[in-house]
Specification:
- By secondary structure, the protein is mainly alpha-helical.
- The protein contains eight helices and no strands.
- Helix 4 crosses helix 6 and helix 4 packs across helix 7.
Length: 189
């Protein structure tokens, strides 16, 4: 009796493995994995202007994808800073504002040209910056709005642009464009 139960169990397991293999083959044929295209954002084109002359905010799927990419990138950079001895949450407000400027530059690199420098994009960046650095959203929005008033903030913005462009192609941020390098180069820490 035990031999029969073992035989039925083995046949069931083989059938499950064959079913899994068949399902994997059908999935691969229906949607092949393309690593390069999955790392890039495919933002939709906006069709028209609003009554105020501003572009409409990003649609929900594009906003979600951008939010996800920024959250991942900010998490990786926060971890890099922590490993190198810089805790952004305990840093002075100016350092956290530089981090928000870096993240805003990264957001501009990852989004479509029509969404750059919009209120919607600044809101997304302010939300993520407040979660990762402890900076209030109003302070992050102020740092983004007054970006050109400070050469250090502008330099951090540019490093964020370069870092995110590099990250979208190579899946890591080069050390010369990292958040840690941008912040420590342009502030007295």
């Amino acid at each position: 009796m035990t031999d029969g139960l073992i035989l039925v169990t083995q046949i069931g397991l083989v059938a499950l493995v064959l079913l899994m293999a068949l399902r994997m083959v059908t999935l691969v044929r229906s949607a092949p994995v393309d690593g390069l295209q999955s790392s890039r954002m495919e933002m939709s084109e906006f069709s028209g202007w609003t009554a105020t002359g501003m572009m409409p905010p990003a649609s929900a799927p594009d906003r979600t994808e951008l939010f996800t990419q920024l959250h991942i990138l900010a998490g990786l950079q926060e971890r890099d800073c922590r490993i190198r001895g810089l805790d952004l949450a305990d840093s002075p407000a100016a350092v956290r504002a530089y981090a928000a400027a870096w993240l805003y530059g990264a957001a501009c690199a990852l989004c479509d040209h029509s969404v750059r420098h919009s209120d919607s994009l600044a809101g997304i960046v302010a939300h993520i910056a407040s979660r990762k650095t402890g900076l209030r959203q109003t302070q992050a929005l102020q740092a983004i709005a007054t970006l050109t008033n400070s050469s250090a903030g502008l330099a951090c913005f540019r490093e964020g642009l370069q870092g995110a462009k590099f990250w979208s192609h190579h899946h890591y941020v080069a050390s010369q464009h990292s958040l840690y390098e941008a912040v420590t180069t342009h502030s007295f820490i």
